[in-house]
Design brief:
- The chain is an alpha/beta fold.
- The chain is built from 10 helices and 8 strands.
- It has a 4-stranded parallel β-sheet with strand order 2-1-3-4, sandwiched between helices. Strands 6-5-7-8 form a 4-stranded parallel β-sheet, with helices on both faces.
- Helix 1 (12-30) links the parallel strand 1 (4-8) and strand 2 (38-42).
- Helix 1 (12-30) packs across helix 10, helix 3 packs parallel to helix 4 and helix 5 crosses helix 10.
- GO terms for molecular function: amino-acid racemase activity.
- Keywords: Isomerase.
- Belongs to the aspartate/glutamate racemases family.
C-alpha cells in the first residue's frame, strides 16, 4: 500500500474517526493484522477556529499549506484534508504540494451519483452552509443543493462547535438534527450530506428518512482505494 497523508486536528474528534476508519477499512479488505500506512499532521483547532471567525481565510490557508508540505515531505502519496469547512482553502493547499488532494465534496458527489440522488440537503458549519465554496462544488457535479433556513443553520452550527467538537453527543441534539433533516426532505431533498466531519458522531442513517452521505467515511474509503496498491 501507498501512504495516506492526513491533515487533521480540526477537530481532533473527527480526525480520530479518520484514523480509525482508515485502519478498519484496510483490515476488512486485507484481513489479519493489516493496517493503513498513514502520515498525520494534527493542527491546534483553536488557532484555526479563531481565523475562521475573523474571516482570515488567507492566513488559515497559509497554515494549512505549510502543514500539507510537511505531510508530503514525510512520505504521503495522497492528501486528505480532514475537515469540510477548511475546504474553503482547498485550492491553496493543493497548490502547495505535488501529491494529489482528494476533495471531500468530489468524493461525496461521486457517492450521491452512485445512489441515484439529485437534490441534496447540506448540513455543516455555518461557513459550509452559507458560503459558496462547498455548495457550488456539489452543484458543479449536477446536484441541486438545499440548505436549512437561518434558525436551523444556527442550531446545526452551535451543536457542532459547542458539543461535537468537544466530544459531547446529546440525544436532544440528535433530535434537533432529525427535525432539521425532516424539513429539508419536505422541501425536496432526496439525500442528506453530513457536510461536517463531526456530524457523523451524532447522526445515524436511521435518523433520516432519506439516504445520508457520511462525508468522512466516503473520504476515507476513497483514500484507501487510491492507495491500496503501488502503481506499476
Amino acid at each position: 500500500m501507498r501512504t495516506i497523508g492526513m491533515l487533521g486536528g480540526m477537530s481532533w474528534e473527527s480526525t480520530a474517526e479518520y484514523y480509525r476508519l482508515a485502519n478498519q477499512i484496510v483490515r476488512e479488505r486485507l484481513g489479519g493484522l493489516h493496517s493503513a500506512h498513514i502520515v498525520l499532521e494534527s493542527l491546534d483547532f483553536a488557532d484555526i477556529e479563531r481565523l475562521q471567525v475573523a474571516g482570515e481565510w488567507d492566513e488559515a490557508g497559509r497554515i494549512l499549506a505549510d502543514a500539507a508540505r510537511r505531510v508530503e515531505a514525510a512520505g504521503a502519496d495522497v492528501l486528505v484534508l480532514c475537515t469540510n469547512t477548511m475546504h474553503k482553502v482547498a485550492a491553496t493547499v493543493q497548490a502547495a504540494v505535488g501529491i494529489p488532494m482528494l476533495h471531500l465534496a468530489d468524493t461525496t458527489a461521486d457517492a450521491a451519483r452512485r445512489a441515484g440522488l439529485s437534490t441534496l440537503g447540506l448540513l455543516g458549519t455555518a461557513f459550509t452552509m452559507e458560503q459558496d465554496f462547498y455548495r457550488d462544488r456539489l452543484a458543479g457535479h449536477g446536484f441541486t443543493v438545499l440548505t436549512p433556513p437561518a434558525d436551523d443553520r444556527a442550531d446545526v452550527h452551535r451543536i457542532i462547535y459547542d458539543e461535537l467538537c468537544l466530544g459531547v453527543v446529546r440525544e436532544p441534539s440528535r433530535q434537533t438534527y432529525r427535525e432539521v433533516i425532516a424539513r429539508l426532505v419536505d422541501r425536496g431533498a432526496d439525500g442528506i450530506v453530513l457536510g461536517c466531519t463531526e456530524i457523523e458522531l451524532l447522526v445515524r442513517p436511521e435518523d433520516s428518512p432519506v439516504p445520508v452521505l457520511p462525508t468522512t467515511r466516503l473520504h476515507v474509503e476513497a483514500a484507501v482505494e487510491v492507495t491500496r496498491a503501488r502503481p506499476s
